[in-house]
Structure formats: structure tokens, C-alpha cells
Write a structure and sequence with these properties.
Shape: globular
Number of strands: 15
Radius of gyration: 17 Å
Structural class: alpha/beta
CATH topology: Purple Acid Phosphatase, chain A, domain 2
Bound molecules: manganese (II) ion
CATH class: Alpha Beta
Order of helices and strands: EEEHHEHEHEEEHEEEEEEE
CATH architecture: 4-Layer Sandwich
Number of domains: 1
Largest sheet: 9 strands, mixed
């Protein structure tokens, strides 16, 4: 198996490529603006969590699979600072960095240009194609790929544990047409995500019966929870 689930990231062994998705930098600031008082730990916690992942792997390239930052319409001062610092940190840990545009990244280009990076809508690595998942691509490379890796959905699953419901970030792995589909959890450490057992899903890749999808919960390690229909 070439694809390894590593904490909230996905690692392509042969290519030594690490994929992370949906960091949503600036999320706490946007909550603050709506009057929700949360302290701001996101940037530092994201760096620490990434460091742990980097420690165990040999990484040639990193792919940020969309929604690098949160705000749609503007770049706040915190976002400028955090985004540039985060890009620099990622560049220190790989030889090549690719930023895929998500639906929250309408104005990521001014930030990327500062570091001479181009943004793309999809990225092919041998038989895997990485795209955000807010739309279904239609290019040759997408159709050729055997594995599709998406983010966007922020899958999480709510389970009862001694009477209380706890929500966990998770990977979903199943089929889309004849391809293998990998749905990654978000790297937004402020919130868990969308409870796939209850909430309506967004991605056009997931407008299908998901009962045969496998669920992998991310906790201190990755737990194989079997098929969604059995949970
Ligand atoms: Mn998204």
C-alpha cells in the first residue's frame, strides 16, 4: 500500500509526499469577529502537530489541499502574518510546496505570490490525483488517476462513549466510480468537523451511498472502525 494515514495527514510513500487539508488559518479570528470569544491557539498548535508528523517521515514535497485560510473576502493582518509564517515553516520542511485552491481560497494568490508559489486546482502524483473536492475536475490527469484525495468535507464522527457523545475527526475511504476515494479530515484544530452520521454532506464526490466507506478515526493513533454501515 503506497498510501499511509499519518495523524491528520496522508503520506504517499513512494513519492515521499505529504498531503494536509483545510487548515483554515484565521478561523479563531473570524469567530472573534462574530463575537465568539475563543482564545487564539490555532497557529501554534498547528505548527506543533505538524512537527510531530514531520519527525517520523522523510518528506520531499508537501501538498496543501485547499482552504489554507478561512476568510473568503479579505486577508486580515493575522491571516497575512500567520499564512506567510506557515508557508515558510512548510518550506523549511520540504523541497517543494504546492497549494491547491479550495473554495475558501478565492484570494490566496497574493499570499502565495509573496513566496513565489503558484496555486493550482488539482495536482497529479503518479496514479494519485489531489484536489479540494468542492467540484469534480474534468482534466485528463484526473480521469487517468486511480486514487482521488480530497478534503473540503471535514469528516468527523460522533460516537457514544459512557453515555456522552464524543466527536472524532476521521478519514473516509471508499469508491467514486471506479477510483479509490480518500476523504481527509480537516487540519483545523479548533473544531472537529461535520458529523457524517447526521449532517448533510457537501462534496459532489459524496453524493452517493456511503455505507461501504471505511472509517478511520484519528486519535492518539489511527483506529480502523470498519464500514460506515456497521457503526
Ligand atoms: Mn472547503
Amino acid at each position: 500500500m503506497n498510501i499511509l494515514l499519518k495523524d491528520l495527514a496522508l503520506y504517499l510513500k513512494k513519492e515521499k509526499a505529504l498531503v494536509i487539508s483545510d487548515i483554515h488559518l484565521g478561523f479563531e479570528e473570524s469567530l472573534n469577529k462574530q463575537g465568539i470569544l475563543v482564545p487564539r491557539f490555532q497557529y501554534e498548535e498547528t505548527i506543533q502537530r505538524l512537527k510531530k508528523i514531520f519527525k517520523d517521515l522523510e518528506i520531499n514535497e508537501i501538498i496543501v489541499n485547499g482552504d489554507f485560510k478561512h476568510e473568503f473576502g479579505q486577508i486580515s493582518r493575522t491571516e497575512w502574518k500567520d499564512s506567510l509564517n506557515m508557508i515558510d515553516f512548510l518550506l523549511e520542511n520540504c523541497k517543494k510546496l504546492t497549494i491547491i485552491k479550495g473554495n475558501h481560497d478565492k484570494i490566496i494568490d497574493p499570499i502565495a505570490i509573496r513566496r513565489n508559489l503558484k496555486t493550482v486546482l488539482g495536482y497529479k502524483l503518479n496514479d494519485s490525483y489531489i484536489c479540494h473536492g468542492d467540484f469534480i475536475p474534468n482534466d485528463f490527469e484526473f480521469h487517468e488517476a486511480k486514487n482521488i484525495i480530497i478534503g473540503h468535507e471535514h469528516p468527523a464522527i460522533s460516537l457514544r462513549k459512557s453515555g456522552r457523545a464524543e466527536t472524532y475527526k476521521c478519514f473516509l475511504i471508499g469508491k467514486w466510480k471506479r477510483k479509490n476515494l480518500y476523504v481527509m479530515p480537516s487540519f483545523n484544530l479548533v473544531v472537529e468537523g461535520t458529523n457524517i452520521l447526521k449532517e448533510k454532506l457537501l462534496s459532489p464526490f459524496l453524493k452517493q451511498d456511503l455505507k461501504n466507506f471505511n472509517v478511520f478515526i484519528v486519535e492518539d493513533k489511527i483506529y480502523d472502525f470498519g464500514k460506515l454501515k456497521d457503526i
